[in-house]
Amino acid sequence: MQILVAEDDSVIADGLCRVLTAQGMTVQVVDNGATADLLLQRADTPEVVVLDIGLPGLDGFEVVRRLRARGGRVPVLLLTARDAVADRVRGLETGADDYLVKPFASAELVARVRALARRHGAPPALLAMGDLTLDCATRRARVRDRVIELSVREWTVLEYLLQHGARVVSKQQIIDAILPWGDDLTLNAVEVYVSRLRLKIADAGVAIRTIRGFGYMLEPVAHDAP
User: Fold this and answer.
1) DSSP code of 124?
2) CB under 8 Å, gap of 24 or more: what pairs does 205-211 form?
3) CB contact at 8 A, 158 and 134
4) What is the CA angle 186-188-189, rounded to 5?
5) Are strands 146-148 and 140-143 parallel, antiparallel or unpaired?
6) Cα gap 149→154, rounded to integer Å
7) What is the pLDDT of residue 225?
8) What is the C-alpha to C-alpha distance for residues 219 and 210, in angstroms, rounded to an integer?
9) How far apart are the first and last CA of the chain?
């Protein structure tokens, strides 16, 4: 599950990232409303947005207003230290789907994020192509009845490719999917992960095809293909 967190307090943002990633979610963190607004204009929007109201520049209310004005349907959970009823009402009337007042329990945050994802159409529990199946609930990858062992980053790359089906994704998109919270990863490292995955799924009836100058895509292949 892809989550966008917009929070300008670095301590809170780090805590949110840790809590959500511990639940198997992929989290991208930004610290201002303008960046959040730009990301929400992209085609590959997240499944849920966790949005602080008191952001610098564009506040959370304005980010939600612009998102809904563009027809964006991604669910939004507002976070704020303001406990006034008027602020809650304004946020919901602007287009937010839910509201949490700081401080809040981590378990409640996770429960609300999952509920929003379910309500608006969570990603499928199983991703499959050819004889390759990824069980996103148990984090197990299989080729037919054989479990294949994947590192966290290998899993994320393969999951991202399967989520995009027969569409081409760039190396930079893969980097953003693996490390949205800003760690370092080179384009060469992506090539290494793809190379390892090709070996591990060689008999799965699926190939990771390189589209020169663009990136990678998954495609089904015959089992006797070279």
Assistant:
1) P
2) 205/129, 205/130, 205/131, 205/132, 206/129, 206/130, 206/131, 206/132, 208/161, 211/168
3) yes
4) 65
5) antiparallel
6) 9
7) 44
8) 11
9) 34
Q: What angle do CA 135, 121, 205 make, to 5 degrees?
A: 35
Strand partners, 30: 6
- The residue assigned the tokens 């960046």 is 35
Domains in the chain, please, with CATH? 2-119 (3.40.50.2300), 126-220 (1.10.10.10)
Confirm if 63 and 55 have CB atoms less than 8 A apart.
yes
Q: How far apart are CA 133 and CA 142, in angstroms?
A: 5
Average pLDDT, 10 consecutive residues per value, the chain (226 residues): 93 92 90 94 86 92 91 88 74 86 86 83 74 85 93 86 84 71 68 94 93 90 59
How far is Cα 1 from Cα 81, in angstroms, rounded to an integer?
26
